[in-house]
Amino acid sequence: MLSCSKDRMDDKVKTFSKFGDTGKGGITRLSLSPEALDAREEFCKRCRALGMDIKTDDMANIYATIPGELDLPAIMAGSHLDSVRQGGNYDGVLGVLTALEAVETIITEKISHKHPITVIVWTNEEGARFEPAMMSSGVICGKFDKDLMLASKDLDGVTFKEALEASGYMGKVENRMTPDKYRALVELHVEQGPVLENEKVDIGVVEGVCGMINYEFTFIGQADHAGTTPMKYRKDALYAATKTILYLHEELDKLDGKLVYTTGKISAHPNIHTVIPDIVKFTLDARHQDAEVIKQVLEIIKAIPKIVEKCEASYEKAWARNTVEFNSEFVNYVENSAKEYGYTAKRMYSGPGHDAQFVTDIIPSTMIFVPSENGHSHCEKEFTPIDNCLKGANVLLQTILDIDKN
Ligand SMILES: [Zn+2]
User: Where is the signal peptide (predicted)?
Assistant: First the structure.
C-alpha cells in the first residue's frame, strides 16, 4: 500500500516543535504571536516549495492548494498551529503536518487525483490568547459574530483585530471556504485522552463530537463566626454544595459508562478560614454522544431540592452544545482505510471540540484520531510516537483519495 514517508514526517514534527519551544518538551505558541507567525512562515515556505498556491481569508486562515485534474471543489485537510500556554508538540499541528505529508506523498509519488487538495491552517483554535476557542472556523461557519471576535483582547490589551492586521496574513473575505469551492474536510488530531493507547488501537475513527452541558450551581447560606456558632445553627453553603456534588456523582455514575462529568470550578465566599461560607458556586460539565443520556443528566440536576442543609440551592445553564455527527460516508472511508493498512481502529466520539465540528455544518467533514501517550494533552508531556503519526498520515492520505474517487 501507498505510504507516507516516516523520515519526512519526523522532520516535520521536529522542525515545528522549535517554534515556541519551552525547553521542557513542549511549546507556547499562542495565536498570532511571533512564535506562531514563525510556524506559519515555515508552513508557507514548505507549501511554496511543493508548488502549492497559498491564499488567506479575512480571519487569516491559510489555504494551500494543489490543483486536481478536473475543475472541481477541493478536498481539505488540516488543523491549527497555535497552542495553549506550555502545550505540546502534537495538538493541532499534527493535523497540519500529516495533511502536508499526504500532499507531499501525492506529489512525489505522482498519484492522480481529480479534485484539488487544500491543506488548511485555522487561526486561533485554542482561544488561549483571544477567547473563545475555535474562533475563526466559528466566524466562517456563522457561529460567532465577527465584530465581537475582532474586539476580543489578550492579557496585554491587544485586540484580535490588531494582531490580525499586524500578522501579514489577513486576506480577503472572498477567500473563505464555502461549499461551492470545497467538497470535504478531514481533520487529523491527537486523541487527547487515554482510550486508544490503553486499548492498543492505532486509529480513532471519529463519528462525531459529544454533546455537552455546563451548569453552574449556587448555594446561599449564612456567614457567621467559626468559633461561636454551634453546628446546629449553621447554614454552611460549602457543606450544602459538597453534599450536592456527592449526590451528583452517585447518581451520574448510575448512567451510561461513557458519560464523563466534571466539577472543575468552585468558589467559596468569603473564603476566610474563620468564617462559615455563605455563597458557594460550582460547575458541572457533562458530556455524552447520546442526547437521551444528557437528558437523564438534566433530570438528576432537576431533582436537587431547593433547600439543601438549610441553604438555598439553585442552578443555571451556562452553556450547551448538541452532539455533532460527522459525514457517515467519510467515517466509513477512515475505518476502511485503517483496515486496508492492517491498523487496528475503533469508532469513537470526540470529547473536546474541534474546528471540524463547525465546518461539517456547511461542508461534509470527518476526523481521524491518533493515540496520545498516557492520554496527556494541553501540557508539555503531550506525545504521540512517530509510528502512530505515520499511521495517521497514511489513513488521512487514503481517506483523501477515497473521497476523491467517489
Ligand atoms: Zn487541537
Answer: none
* CATH numbers and ranges of domains, the chain: 6-209+323-405 (3.40.630.10), 211-321 (3.30.70.360)
Closest CA to 244 of 295, 316, 285, 300: 300
**Cα 125 to Cα 100: distance, rounded to the nearest angstrom:** 19
Residue 143 CB-density burial (10 A; 0-12 exposed, 13-18 middle, 19+ buried):
middle
Separation of CA 80 and ligand 1 centre (Å): 7
**Alpha helices (H) in 17-140, listed in sequence order:** 34-49, 93-108, 135-140
The dihedral of CA 397, 400, 405, 406: what is its sign? positive
C-alpha 7 – ligand 1 centre gap (Å): 24
pLDDT digits (tens, 9 = 90+) for 120-177: 999 999 999 999 999 999 999 999 999 999 999 999 999 999 999 999 999 999 999 9
State the distance from the centre of ligand 1 to the C-alpha of 386, rounded, in angstroms: 18
**What's the angle, vertex CA 392, arms to CA 391 and CA 395, rounded to 5?**
85
Which among 347, 244, 346, 350 has a CA at the least distance from the CA of 287?
350
- State residue 324 phi and psi, 5-degree precision: -105, 130
The whole model's pTM is what? 0.92
- Spacing, Cα 143 to ligand 1 middle (Å): 18
Centroid of ligand 1 to alpha carbon of 319 (angstroms): 21
Which tens digit of pLDDT belongs to each residue from 284-314? 999 999 999 999 999 999 999 999 999 999 9
Q: Which residues are annotated as a binding site?
A: 80, 91, 126, 189, 378
Bond prior to 270 in cis (omega within 30° of 0):
yes
E-strand ranges in 289-385 read: 307-308, 311-321, 324-325, 345-350, 365-370
Overall size of the chain counted in residues: 406
Binding-site positions for Zn(2+) read 80, 91, 126, 189, 378
Q: Strands (DSSP E) along 202-270, which ranges?
A: 203-209, 211-220, 260-262, 266-269
Backbone torsions φ then ψ of 347, nearest 5 degrees: -75, 135
Q: Which of 317, 344, 89 is nearest to 213 (CA)?
A: 317
